[in-house]
Amino acid sequence: MALGGRMVITFVGRRSLDTSSAECGLFWELLAKSLEDMISKRLNWIHSTYIPYYAPHIEEVKTIIRSEGSFDLDRIEAFDVDWDTSEDYMDREYVSDKLKSGNYVAMTLRPACDMVASHFGIEEMNMDYLFSRHAHHVGETELLAKDRPKHHLLVLCMSKK
User: What's the confidence (pLDDT) of residue 18?
Assistant: First the structure.
């Protein structure tokens, strides 16, 4: 990157400083339940698959960028986005169609998982089955009945020193 060049990055973070908070793992725990469903169908490749995931707190990001020293952090913002952005939530604090919402949420994760499966050469994985189970688990979660789950996004603007 050229000196003074700018970069904007958006990724999922977390609100809490506690790395074990529910906001860090619920989305992935529901996918894990779907993978367990596949294991019960004797798809044993999953035992050797590891997909690392970490959602940093905004202060961690600031500290790392400043200590690394290659970039000036021009601006950093955090905001929340509903898991399901397809539904009209005006005047509602909960999800009205949990099955539809579960399917929408599952499909937002599928492109990343398709890439992982392809990268590892996993041919026996039935992605349609996995994500139909994931949609079911998302739709079933109690969180949708009483809340609108959100991703906590961090947006950074940095320039090269």
Answer: 82
